[in-house]
Amino acid sequence: MTLLQTLTVFSIVAALTYLAGMTIAVVILALRSGGRREEPAEDRHALSASRFSIPVSLIVPLTVSADGPDAAATLAGLLGLNYPGLEVIVITEGLSKRVWESLKDEWRLEAREFFYRFSLATSPVRMMYRSARDARLLVVDKTPGTPADALNCGVSLARYRFVSAVEPGLVFDADALLRAMAAPLRDPAGVVGATIHVETTGATIQRLRSIRSLMDSRLVWRHLRGTLGPRDAVVVWRREAVEHAGGFSAAAADPHLEMMVRLQTATGPGAGGQVVRTAEIFGCRRPRPFSEHMRLTRRRQLAALQAVASMLRAGTPARAMLGYFFLSEVLTPCAQAWVLTATVAGAAAGWLSWVDVPLVVLLLAIGHALVSGAALLVRGELSDTPDARGLKRLLLLAPLEFLAFCAAVGCARTAGVIAFLISPWSQASAGDRTASEIA
Predict the structure, then answer these.
(1) What is the pLDDT of residue 108?
(2) How would residue 177 be classed by pLDDT, with cut points 50, 70 and 90?
(3) CB 234 within 8 A of CB 196
(4) In angstroms, rounded to a whole number, what is the distance separating the alpha carbons of residues 126 and 140?
(5) Within this chain, do residues 330 and 266 fall inside the same structural domain, yes or no?
(6) Residue 4 — very low, low, confident or very high, per pLDDT cuts 50/70/90?
(7) Which of 108, 149, 144, 163 is nearest to 249 (CA)?
(8) What is the DSSP pairing of strand 137-142 with strand 125-131?
(9) What is the domain count for the chain?
């Protein structure tokens, strides 16, 4: 047996051992946690009714791809939230004439002149409109820019201490903002951000991924010093903290994730603060088309590598946060990819039997299914729990998820790694690449 052959076999065994250990640990933690709720809903309602309730500015970015019915439903839902003080700021960029006319007629928009000072540099604003139907709604028509640019525009125009961006098309109940604001209401001085999950609907493979992300929040992230948010989430930010940091970065693959890193690694007077990742659900969304899902998988891999690079460069003291994020977002998918790649290569070289290839795939699929089953257990009694039929379908889909999509997901993640390696982010300081400097 040659040295290369020995190293290959050893690396496969080591990667499988690591993945098996992670799977066993997740299952044990899930069995200990079960599906118990940890925070009575009455606590949130008591906070919302108290004199410490803090108004929130909700930002809704609408781009050229916005769908009229989705946008209308989202605005109606936000303005109907059970929350004592809020405003809705819609940032429109290049909307189609049909969507714009529908929005204008539905909310009786009237052009107004406002005196304002942008605290964050953004692309120019063309016109602002106030709704005659509900004065809490402000619609801003601006020159198209990056997603971060739209967020910065909303933050600059926000009147209230906390801001949050909500994408059109989300479905949520009237108490969604109460759940999102639970952590900031408890500690408004210490919390600069809080994330809350957005779950994919239906008995689909995409829902399994969102349920696993929810389990991650409940079992691990709430015990760590510092946090980084999930891929699909609504994030509440303290406005002055975002402004102090220079706004969202137009160069970041995920502006929210990059902001979390920047705020939690900032130093100096008045800098930084705590970001809380809650194990609650804001609302849900329809499954994405396959191509969009793969594109977001690539972007998340790129964003994860950017976040790790930024934390290493900043010398963050939150080593547990960095360590676990690296394990879950970088090392684990790389270990899965390596096991498959090395086994196929070893079989092609004659070092391993071709029978080992389907055996390894089966082992990875079983491990993936066990983690998904544990996530379904942890999800427990949260809202919109799958019924018996949906639960059976999700359990059947769990092993098929890896078998059906491992190649596509692997390609998307590899593309994210390549994009990171060839981007200037791996050399330049992420903290210097703010939206204001790029503008």
Answers:
(1) 93
(2) very high
(3) yes
(4) 8
(5) no
(6) confident
(7) 149
(8) antiparallel
(9) 2
The tokens for 68 are: 């009229």
Tell me the C-alpha distance between 234 and 185, whole Å. Answer: 16
Q: What is the DSSP string of 188-249?
A: TTTEEEEEEEEEEPSSSHHHHHHHHHHHHHHHTGGGSSS----SSEEEEEEHHHHHHTTS--
Domain co-membership, 381 together with 262: no
Q: Is the pLDDT of residue 345 over 80?
A: yes
Is residue 259 domain-shared with residue 335, that is, in the same domain?
A: no
Which helix (H) or strand (E) segment holds residue 59: the answer is: strand 56-62
Query: Strand pairing of 56-62 and 162-165?
Result: parallel
- 52 and 17 in a common domain: no
Contact 99, 64 (CB under 8 A): no
DSSP state of 74: H
Alpha helices per DSSP H over 281-355: 290-314, 319-326, 332-349
Picking from 247, 272, 289, the residue at the C-terminal end of a domain is 289
Same domain, 137 and 113: yes
Rounded CA-CA distance 194/227 in Å is 9
Domain membership of residue 310 (yes or no) is no
pLDDT attached to residue 402: 84
pLDDT tens track for 22-73: 999 999 999 888 765 555 544 555 555 555 579 999 999 998 777 778 888 9
Straight-line distance from the first to the last Cα atom of the chain, in angstroms, rounded to the nearest whole number: 58
CB 281 within 8 A of CB 398: no
Alpha-carbon gap, residue 196 to 217, rounded angstroms: 9
In terms of residue numbers, what domain contains 164? 41-289
Enter the DSSP assignment of 268.
Answer: S
Give the residue carrying structure tokens 């076999």: 9
| Proportion of the chain above pLDDT 90, given as a percent | 50
Residue 152's identity, in one-letter code, is: N
Residue 425: Cβ-neighbour burial (10 angstroms; 0-12, 13-18, 19+): buried
Residues 27 and 48 placed together within one structural domain of the fold: no
Residue at 305 is within a domain: no
